[in-house]
From TrEMBL:
This is Ig-like domain-containing protein. The lineage of its organism: Eukaryota, Metazoa, Chordata, Craniata, Vertebrata. It comes from Bos mutus (wild yak). Keywords: Adaptive immunity, Immunity, Immunoglobulin domain, Receptor, Signal, T cell receptor. The keyword Glycosyltransferase does not apply. GO terms for biological process: adaptive immune response. GO terms for cellular component: T cell receptor complex. The keyword Signal applies.
Length: 123
């Protein structure tokens, strides 16, 4: 998310990452502009054999990406700073949600996965 000064708008920056060994995540890339206090859902779908470990990363300006949320099994919910994402093995999704976005949510968000058996990271 990126906040426009004095505009009351929040811009979400999303990136589509590649794939590893046939496992992949799909996330729409680009910008999403929202008014402050709007609800947001950032979609993340995955394709994998078995049940990988799923992550949401955040990246603040001029910093390295940091793990924000993590889920290791089906139906597990990750919660951090009023955001949540539920691992859904049936629909192969890990959508990030928050009610009432704020200026402090103005960072870049990445969805990623890790193969639980081989220990490879993908996203």
């Amino acid at each position: 998310l990126q906040m426009s000064p004095s505009s009351g708008l929040v811009t979400i920056i999303l990136f589509l990452l590649g794939q590893t060994r046939g496992d992949s995540v799909t996330q729409l890339g680009g910008l999403v502009i929202l008014p402050e206090k709007a609800d947001v859902t950032i979609n993340c779908n995955f394709s994998a054999t078995g049940y990988p470990i799923l992550f949401w990363y955040v990246q603040c300006s001029r910093e390295s990406p940091q793990i924000f949320l993590k889920a290791t099994k089906d139906k597990e919910k990750g919660i951090s700073k009023e955001f949540e994402a539920t691992y859904c093995g049936k629909s192969k999704s890990f959508h990030l949600k928050k009610a009432s976005v704020q200026e402090s949510d103005s960072v870049v968000y990445y969805c990623a996965l890790s193969d639980t058996e081989k220990g490879t990271a993908g996203g």
